[in-house]
Structure formats: C-alpha cells, structure tokens
Amino acid sequence: MIKTINPTTEEVITQYRFLDQVEVEKFINQTQQAQRVWKETGMADRAAGMRKAADTLIKHKSTYARLMAEEMGKPLPDGESEIEKCARVCHYYADHAADFLANEPVPSHSGKSVVTFQPLGIVFAIMPWNFPFWQVFRFAAPSLMAGNGAMLKHAPNVFGCAGAIESIFREAGFPEGLFQNLIIDTDMAAKVIAHPAISAVTFTGSTRAGRLVAEKAGQNLKKTVLELGGSDPYLILEDANLEIAIKACVTSRMINNGQSCISAKRFIVSHVIQSEFENRLVAGMAGIQPGNPLSPETKAGPMARADLRTALHEQVQKSIDLGAKCLTGGQIPAGKGYFYPPTVLTNIKRGMPAYQEELFGPVAAIITAHSEEEAIAIANDTSFGLGAAIFTEDLDKAEKMASVDIEAGSCYINSFVQSDPVLPFGGIKESGYGRELSHYGIREFVNIKTVYIK
Q1: Looking at the domain assignment, is residue 423 inside a domain?
Q2: What whole-number distance in Å separates Cα of residue 308 and Cα of residue 289?
Q3: What is the bridge-based pairing of β-strands 2-5 and 12-16?
Q4: Is residue 420 a part of any domain in this protein?
Q5: First CA to last CA across the chain, in angstroms?
Q6: In sequence order, what are the beta bridge partners of 15?
Q7: Domain tally for the chain?
C-alpha cells in the first residue's frame, strides 16, 4: 500500500494498492487488443475523440485543479491554467495530426517511393508529479492520434490525477483499454518496459531515474524519449531591460512553487547591473508568500513532499557553508505543510550545489559575469541542457547567442522558457533526448517506413 499525503496539511488523502503481475498482464493485453482496433480507425474519428477529451477537460477544470492542489500543492489558478493547456494540445493534434502523418512522396530511381508514418504499438509513459495533467497529455495526445495505445505509470503522490486522466479518455469515447493507468511500483515498471507488447517508452523526471529507464529500455531495444532535469541559465546582459527581466525571472523561478524542470535556476548577471538586479529580484521573490493552494489568492503553495524540501534546504545550507550569501529566505518555516520560502542566493561559485546541481524548489542562484563571453561559458558550464534565456536590447546579438552559443534544447530571448504545443520541446546533454510537441513530437513514436515500388 502507498499513501497520498496532502502537502499543505500533511494529512493522508487516500491509500492505493499496487497491481500484481497477473493484473498488469491483463491490462497490457487489453491495451494491445484496443490498439489493434484503434490503428485502423480513421484520422477524423481519432480527432473527434481528442476534441471530446478537450471538452471534458474544460468542463471539469475546477475539479481537476482542486485535485492537483490537494495531491501536490499547485495553486488553483495555476491548476486551471494547466488544464486549459491540456485542452489546447488535444485540439492542436486533432487539427494537425493528419497533415503531420500524411504520406510523403520522395523522388527516387523507382517509379514511386513513399515515406509513411505508422503507429509503433503501445507507448509506456512514466510521468512526474509536478505537472500531473500536462506531462501526460503532451505525450498522450500525439501518441494516440498517431494510432498508438498508451499506458501510464504516474508518480505515486498523484495517483488520483492519473485516474482522472484515464476517465477523461474513457468519457471521450476512446476504445476501452486504449489508455490505461497502472498503479505500480518501480520494480513492476521495469517489467512493463521489458514486456514484448510495449513498443516504446517516454519518461519525464530526474536524470538519475532517466538513466535507469534508458538502460532497461536499451536492454530490450525499445525506443525512448527522455525529458530530464534542468538547471536553466538566464543571462542578464548589461543592456537588459530590468523591468522585463525581473518580471520574467521571478515568474519563471516560481512556476509551480519553483518545482519545474524549465524554471529559471541560475541567474548569470553582468557585474555592471548586478546590484540593481539583486535588489529587484529580492523584492520580487520576497513578495510571493506561500500559502494554502486552495485559496484563490495564493500565488505559491507548498513543496510536493517533505523529502523534496529537506533535500533543497540541504543544498541551500551547503552552498552557504561554501561562501554563498542568502539575501532572502533560506529557512524552513514552523507549522504544518511542506512550505519553503522564496530564496535568493548570491556569490555563487563553482563547486557549490547552487552552481553544480539542479535546485528543484523556489531558490534563485545569482552568478556574476564580467563579460558576455564569460556569461556564455558559465551558462554552458553544466551537465544539463534543457532551456535558457537571454535578456538584452540587442536582438541580433541575442539571436546569434541563442542559436549558436548556448547549449540547450531551447533558448528564449527577453522571455521565460515555456512549453508550447506548436514548438518542439526537449533537452540535450543530461537533460535528455528526443522531442515532444510540434510535428517533431508526434513522429517520435511512429515507424517512419519507406515504401519503394519498382
């Protein structure tokens, strides 16, 4: 049995029993049978089901937002925004999947050569708790529209959200068993990866866990897409508009209570403007006080679990012990709930956790740069490569830096990093491989097949 604990009250919400091997085998067989029917279903019918799923999301968005608030601490307005984003990705693939997967004629020496895009089979998704609906829908919408079946192992603290998602697809009229929620532990997840009926695996989570998933999938020659951790650098150049920069930096650092892989984490600031930047960032961060996520006025809730808060605080304290200076926050508050205050650290140097590691919580790390070349070098001095941002008035220079110099899967200029259905999303280095969203995402889990007719 595993307990789901409300991170605000520390009370047990519910308990779940893990499925055993026989039950899992039964579910896999159901999904396999459903996928065989689904792959023969026309695109128009698939799209109709996906639009119904979007309608169901919007119809019940307040209920789903409350469920997220109770299970992992997301404030209600943020939860409703997440549900709206899920509906958008459903509509996006309902509208465009047929074009993305249309046969492509290719000139060749034969009379006719065509590239077709066929479903692989069943995609097994292992998803995290921080965006419990969005992370699932951004894989499920393209995978299902491509004709695949889908099985989900969600994070244990959001099993309620996982059940709700399965119900959404059922209510939308998708074949019974096409999308299955598996309440399983990590050992059983490894067995599912190895199962002959599973064709591919998509994983979002920590780099450490991603390595294990990739290893197991590789042993069984399964296609994988990994979206892993990040320590996104935000370069604040000397000519940056600080009003724009501060608003974007605070917003990004505090997304989802600071628990987002693409949050701004390392602020690499020109020494010329560092003092003013620090003062403004402290004011912005300190002005956001965590509270009950069920209150409509709350801008930030608790961290999702006690162990996550403990690990974050240890990183902060070790950085301070090594010479970092805490400008605000940095202390665990008394009382119930896994709250952690918005925190700003400066004087960050190489070797500190705040420089080397991902701080998965509301902590901003300021690093001084004495030139643009040094700022780029610091930005790239990391094992991660998910997102990045540059703030400057010189857009031509910024575009060159973003396109060529910064090592990341995406780089935003004068804005914070975010995922969007129309743009490919993913990382490089230890932030993973493969892409989600856009036409690139739907083609990750298809057989790109050549048909040659002499």
Answers
A1: no
A2: 19
A3: antiparallel
A4: no
A5: 60
A6: 3
A7: 2
3-state secondary structure of 16: strand
Integer Cα distance of 393 and 399 in angstroms: 11
Mark whether 191 and 241 lie in a shared domain. Answer: no
* Domain limits for position 222: 2-228+429-453
Q: What is the DSSP letter of 453?
A: E
Query: Cα separation of 147 and 447, whole Å?
Result: 11
- Do 251 and 194 reside in the same domain of the chain? no
Domain for residue 338, yes or no?
Answer: yes
User: In CATH, what number is assigned to the domain containing residue 82?
Assistant: 3.40.605.10
418 falls within a domain: no
- The CATH number of the domain holding residue 258 is 3.40.309.10
Q: What is the Cα–Cα distance from 229 to 360, expressed in whole angstroms?
A: 9
Question: pTM for this one?
Answer: 0.97
Looking at the structure, do residues 89 and 191 belong to the same domain, yes or no? yes
Task: With CA atoms as reference, report the closest residue to 390 among 376, 409, 374.
Answer: 376
Q: How many DSSP H helices and E strands does the chain contain?
A: 15, 18
Per-residue pLDDT tens, the chain, 454 aa: give them.
899 999 999 999 999 999 999 999 999 999 999 999 999 999 999 999 999 999 999 999 999 999 999 999 999 999 999 999 999 999 999 999 999 999 999 998 878 999 999 999 999 999 999 999 999 999 999 999 999 999 999 999 999 999 999 999 999 999 999 999 999 999 999 999 999 999 999 999 999 999 999 999 999 999 999 999 999 999 999 999 999 999 999 999 999 999 999 999 999 999 999 999 999 999 999 999 999 999 989 999 999 999 999 999 999 999 999 999 999 999 999 999 999 999 999 999 999 999 999 999 999 999 999 999 999 999 999 999 999 999 999 999 999 999 999 999 999 999 999 999 999 999 999 999 999 999 999 999 999 999 999 8
Which has the closest alpha carbon to 145: 441, 355, 369?
441
To 10 degrees, the CA torsion angle through 18, 20, 25, 31? -20
| CA distance readout (Å), 398 to 254, 355, 429 | 24, 23, 22
Domain identity same for 216 and 77: yes
Same domain, 328 and 365: yes
Burial 358-380, CB ≥16 within 10 A → b, else e: bbbbbbbbbbbbeebeebbebbe
Q: How far apart are CA 153 and CA 185, in angstroms?
A: 8
Residue numbers annotated as active site: 227, 261
Give the distance, in angstroms, between the CA of residue 440 and the centroid of all CA atoms in the same chain: 16
